[in-house]
Every structure is written in C-alpha cells, then in structure tokens.
Amino acid sequence: MTDIKQKILKTTKFLIILSLIFIIYLLYLQVVKAEDFSRNSINLRNTIFKNNNIRGTIFDCENRPLAKNNDENIRIYPMGESAAHIVGYANPNIGNSGIENYFNNELLGSTEDFKNMGYIAQIFNCKKGNNLILTLDSDVMQTAYYALEGKPGAVVVIDAKTGGVIAMVSSPSFNPNVIQSEWQVLNENPESPLMNRAANGLYPPGSIIKPMMADIALSNAITDEHEIFECGGEIDVGKGYTIKEAHNDTHGHLHLKEALVKSCNITFGTLAMRLGAEKLESGFERYGFYEPIRGEIFETASLIPNFKSLDKGDMAQIGIGQSSLLVTPLRMALIASAIANDGVLAEPYVLEKIISPSGYVLKEHKKKELLRIMSKERAELLSDWMEEVVISGTGKAAKVSGIKIAGKTGTAENAKDKEHSWFMGFAEIGERKVAFSVLVENGGSGADVAAPIAKKIILNMEK
Amino acid sequence: MIDRNIFKIMLISVIMLFCGFVLIFFNQYHNAGEIKVSDFSYVPWLLAEIFLAFLIEFILLKIKRNINLWLFPCAFFLANFGLLSVGRIEYALIIPQIRWIILGMVAFFVTFHFEILIKKILNYKYICGILYVSLLSVAIFLGSDVNGISNCITIGSIRFQPLEFAKIIFVFFLASYLGNYKNISEINDYNNSIIHQYDKQMFYLIAFMLAIIFLLFFKANDFGNALIFLIITLIIMYIKTANKFFIILSVILFFTILFLCYYMLPEAKTFFDAWINPWTLSSESSKKIVQSFFALGAGGVWGAGFTVGHPDFILDAYNYFIFSVIAEEFGLIGSVSLIIINVLLFCQSVCVALKLKNNAEILLAFGIGALFFLQVIVTLFSVTNVLPVTKTFLPFIGYGGSATISDFIMLGIIVSLSRKENFND
Questions:
Q1: Which H, E and C letters describe chain B, residue by residue?
Q2: Tens digits of per-residue pLDDT, B402-423?
C-alpha cells in the first residue's frame, strides 16, 4: 500500500471518529437536554399544545371532581376554598400551582412514558387530556376546612398504612374559581392566604414533639419506662433560666408514661439535656427532619437548630418543642402516621392514578420503599401512651366513643402572640389507621382548640 | 447474490417513500379536511423517478466492470429521505424536488459515461483553476440571495448556484495540481532548485486558497463554504505531501482572517456572537440555532413522528436546517441512521479511491468522497451550534436544484472512476 493510500485511511478514520463523537453530542442534545429545551418559555411547542388540548379532570378518591372544565372550557373548582392549596389552580394568565401545576403535562394529555415514542405517542394523543384520581377525600377536606372556622391554621390527614393524603387543608384560603380577579388582593393580604400552611408553614411544635422525644430517649437508653422523675414545677437549666410547667402545675413523682400523658415539661427538658447534641441530631435525622418531602407535595424543610451550638437551656427547650425548632404540620402528621403504622413511615402521596380519556390506566401509584423509624414494640408502646392521653390526659376533647384514638396536644409558645394550638395523633376507623395533625395559629391551648377540630374530623370519617 | 440484495435495499427506500407519502396525505387530509385531485399530480413524477433509479442501477449491474454498486443506492435513499422531508415541509415543493432528482440522476448517468473526459480534465490544472475562479467570481459578485438561498444567479426563470458546481471543479483543480507534486523523498536527484520549485507551488496554492476564503467570507458572508474549501485543501495537501509546515501555516492564516473579521467587521461580530451565545437571541442566526435546539429536543429518542413535528418554527427548514426537522420527527434514531448512511457513502468512495493507481485520480475520488462527508459534518455541526450557522446543504437531502444536480454529478465521477479499466495497467 502506497503512502497516499495509508494517509487516506488515516483521514477516513479521523473523519469517522469525528462523526461518532458528534453522535454522542447529538445524544446529549436530544436526550439529556431535551427536558430543558421543552421547558424553555420561548419554545412555541408548549403554547400550541396547551391551546389544542382540553385539560383533564381531577377527581378525589370517590370520583367527585376537584377540578374540571365546564361547557365553555373554563376551569372550575367545585370544592372552592377547602381544596384550593393542594389541588391548586391553572390559569392562563397567572400560571399554575399545586397538583394542577405538578401534573400539568399529564392533564394536558402527554404522559412521560409515551412522550418520546414518536407514533406510539400519537396513538395516545387525543385532544382530551388525562384525568387524575387523587387520594384526597372532599368530605374530610370540607369538614376540616370548616372546623378551622376561618382561623389561620392547617389540617393534615394521612392514611398511615399507605401514605395516601386524605386531607390537606390550609386556612385562610382563597377561591381558585375567581383567582384572577382577586389576585392582587390575595397577594397583598398580610395573612397570606395563598400559602399552603400544611406543607409550607413553619411553627414551633411545642409538646407534640414529646412522643418522639420519648422514643429518642428510650432508644438511646438514657432512661427506661421504670425511672421515676421528680417534677417540682420548675427546673433550672443554667445561666439563670428555668423551664416551668404550664398553668404552674407540679406533677410530683412520675414515670415516663405519666410524663407524656400529663405533658410534663420538666421530665422532657431533663431528657433532652441528658441526650446532648449528637444524640438529638441523630434522632431528628432518623425521623427524616433533614429530608423534606419532594414531588407532588412540596414540603418546606423544617428548621432544625445546629445542636452543637446550643447551650443546655436551649437543649432543654428543644425537648419540649420550643427554642429555634420549627416544623410543618405535614411533618408532625407523618410522625403520627409512623407511630400508627407500627413504626414504619409510608411516604405521603396524593396521586392515585392517571387515566387516559378512554379509561386506560397510564400510571398508578407504586408502593415505595417504606422507612422504618422505630421498632414495632416501641410504636405500640407510644400508641398505648398516646391513647392514654386521649382517655385521661390532655387530649380528652378528642375522645369519640367506640373508636381507638391516640393523640398528643401541644401549646407552642411563640414570640408574636398567643400560643399555637396543636393536636396530633391517629384514629382507627374501620380498617384504616388515620393519622392527623391539626394546627391553629395563635389558637391558645391545644386541648381546647385543636383537639375538638380533630374530633370533628374523626366523627365525619366514622360515618 | 450481492446483486439482488442491492435491489432489495433500493426497494426498502421505495417502501419508505410510499409510507412517507401516505402519511403526508393523511396529514394534509387531517389539516385541510379535504384533498384536491390535483394534489396527486406528483405520483407520475414519483413513479418516473423510481423507475429511472432502478433502470440506472440495472444498467450499472449489467456493465460488469467492477463498478461500485453501493454508491448509487445510498444516494437514492438519501434523496428519497430528503424528498419526504421537503414535501412534508412544503407540499408545493414535491414536484420540483422530484424533477431535480430526476435531472440529477440523468446527470449522474451522463457523467458516468464520460470517464475518459474526466481523466483528461485532470491534465489541465490551470484550466480547472481558471474555471473555478470564474464560477466563484460569478457567484460572489453577481449572485444575490433569493428566498434565503445564497449567491444565486437568476437568468429568466432559472435560478442556479454556481458555488455548488465550483466545488466539483475545485476538487478537480486540487487533484490535478497536487497529483504531480513530488515529495522531497520522491525526488532522486536531490537539489535545491527542485525543492524550491515544489515549495513555490505549495505557496501559490495556499495564497490562492486564502484569497478565495477571504472573498467568500467578506463579500458573500459564506463561512460554511469557505471552511469546506479550506478543509478539503488541507486534507488533500496532507494526503499528497504530508508537509506539516504548510498545513499549520494555512490553519494559522485562516484563524487570523477570522480574528481580523471578528474585530473589524460588525457583521462578522454579530455572526460569531450568535455562535458563542445563541440564547441571547440577538440576531437572526441565533434564533435559528435556538429553534434548531428546540426541534432536536422535541425529537428525543423516538422522534415526534413524521408529519407531527413543527418545521414551521424552524427558519430555513427545507434547505440549511432540514436536519433539525428530520431530528425532530424521526428522533435520535432517524438522525443517527442518516449519519450512518452518509458514513457508508463516504466509506464506499474511499474504497473506490483505494483501488485506483493514478495519483491524481486517487485524489479526485477521495476528494469528492471527502467533500460529501465534509458537507454533512459542517452542516450538522452548524445546526447544533458546534460551528456558526453555515449555508451548506446536506448532500442529496436539502431542497435545491443546483445542489441536487451537482451532488449527482460528483457521484457520477466517483462511480465512473470505479470502472475496471482504471486499474488494468
């Protein structure tokens, strides 16, 4: 082979390798970057798609519509204020929010599974969008919303076994049917009705943190069920600070169980100080506080203080859910659901199914890997104790005859105003274990304000 | 056995053509709700094209002189692929494009029979050079941009692009000019004057080529073709002389020209700025690039589906940016297959070149094959912003009479060089 021919072969190889590299770049553009390109606001393909397709309907767990198009193709929300935050709105001028936003493509008619499949996608593409079936229950949502009586607050109700969210209500709310005309007013309202307090509001948990603190203390073996604590109504936590009991009570000698039932601040403050920074941090980590829920429900990350920088007094305050600790109502409902579900936390979800207009199930909720945060025995112990709270302790206002209810009240002090009123727990209704958390901002006593709201919800679900 | 398989392969592209036109029909029906009878007027033309293609391939097969039988079916496939895409973008362009393909095939067949002439031309390097310069000058100084096609010459109702034909002549010129060039190692009676003579030859060539690039870039704003002329010269220089000094020198000079343009010409600055960051959407070419990106993204792996994409968003969709349309509707699978067919075509022309004996003929065959492939690479790089936006066509695919015909003529030259007489000495 002559010199020329060898060089021809070399050049050929070079050019072919160049085109192979180009194919890799093409792969990057057409596959990796495709999502970015399709989301770009100047990409006209989205607009065309939006204008051509009729948005699908969103149903609750019993096929009652939460959002649908009327005959004039205007989006209407039959549930109005009570489902406004979680379902959200879809408005051509304002934009989308909530489920309407997260499942926008599916509602418009494109499902990810078929999105890049050429003709196969065309078979499934008709002018109608897909319908969604959610885990939400309109009845429970409405009851919860009206039980809040317009006071700022939030209710979260979760099926503890599956993680399906039955209700997520935030008050004050807005009417998604008239969102556009009221947009300005809503945005300027100091009570921020557009915010979903259930998943994005941050509050000090107060005493409802105590079941979790009891578990952290027991699992770190710094105490046991038989230790007797001494409550003198006041405890010195150093630097001249003291922790006091509510209503200036004194509880005298008591076990951990009694301390939980009576919500003894002295006991839990002591336990937190005994635990120390590292054990507290690993405890909060185990309960998933550092990993907020993402996806169709977008939880704001809880505000966990840097334990190592806390002094003893602040540590004790953490033990009773005060200090700089801030959590979401959703997070507290999740802790309740883990206790209800034998110590296993099921990831919360809202979407049950996506159904094509012809009735074909395009996507169904898949059971996710569950997270065990405590042993079955511990969960049973805690639920027994929390049951006692409702039977004889601070949670009597939530008692419903014939239903096993476990709960914990909370009255969280805050810098601004009256205490936040909390109630979290679970109820066994029929086959289901229903975990919940109720928050009323500046409502006062948890026992007097939040617990009766929980009772109303349970009574409604029992029917 | 291979003979029959070739017809099977051609049959595949006919089936593709048929399916494609059925889909275009349904798309028209779907959008307009009715189809006029006259809309089928392209069918006889289409049948004529298919018949002609099979006839030509059959004749090539019958000649039995070791003719390369793969090149023509490859081109036939690409031409059909392009026809579908063009027809899908603009229904009215179907018949003109079929006519161009038919004319191209005729030109292929004619060129194929002029093998002796082709070899003779290789002896007249200066005539080639003059012809090339005159075609180029006509294109640059008399041509104008018509309907987005650059450097067009309009005579009556006929429009043509001299630059497309200038490319062929240019390869002829290079092959003849460098075909007789001798490396220092090849010269037995080593003396200074001879070295000097050959080096002078190289210097002239580089000066000549740079002048062309300069003109193309400044006068016609045609970056793509300037780049193709440069690379093809460098490739042939490398193959024949392996003189690294001249290659590096011309690359440096080329980049100097670009830098000078960037800082001195405001048009060149906007042109290159659009390349560096197209997302600012500051100029026409950056908008083209962004829309091309969107089309590529919309295609994904499997494509949006033929006739379902949005070529109406892409500027210059049926000529310079036709690849974006194909990539959107056929996805990664389509775009990669397109590249593979082109690689196949290139490899076949390399095979032809490797079987030849005469240096000038080798350079001609390889030069034309490389020219095809370079046009593909430069065009693809341009629509994906690896290179700035160019005015180059994908061979056989984009709409355009001059481009289609000149592509078929080049194909005819390679196929005729593969005839058996060429290596019987």
A1: CHHHHHHHHHHHHHHHHHHHHHHHHHHHHHHHCCCCHHHHCHHHHHHHHHHHHHHHHHHHHHHCCCCCCCHHHHHHHHHHHHHHHHHHHCHHHHHHHHHHHHHHHHHHHHHHHCHHHHHHHCCCHHHHHHHHHHHHHHHHHHCEEECCEEEEEEECCEEECHHHHHHHHHHHHHHHHHHCCCCHHHCCCCCHHHHHHHHHHHHHHHHHHHHHHHHHHHHHCCHHHHHHHHHHHHHHHHHHHCCHHHHHHHHHHHHHHHHHHHHHCHHHHHHHHHHHCHHHCCCHHHHHHHHHHHHHHHHCCCCCCCCCCCHHHCCCCCCCCHHHHHHHHHHHHHHHHHHHHHHHHHHHHHHHHHHCCCHHHHHHHHHHHHHHHHHHHHHHHHHCCCCCCCCCCCCCCCCCHHHHHHHHHHHHHHHHHCCHHHHCC
A2: 899 999 999 999 999 988 654 4
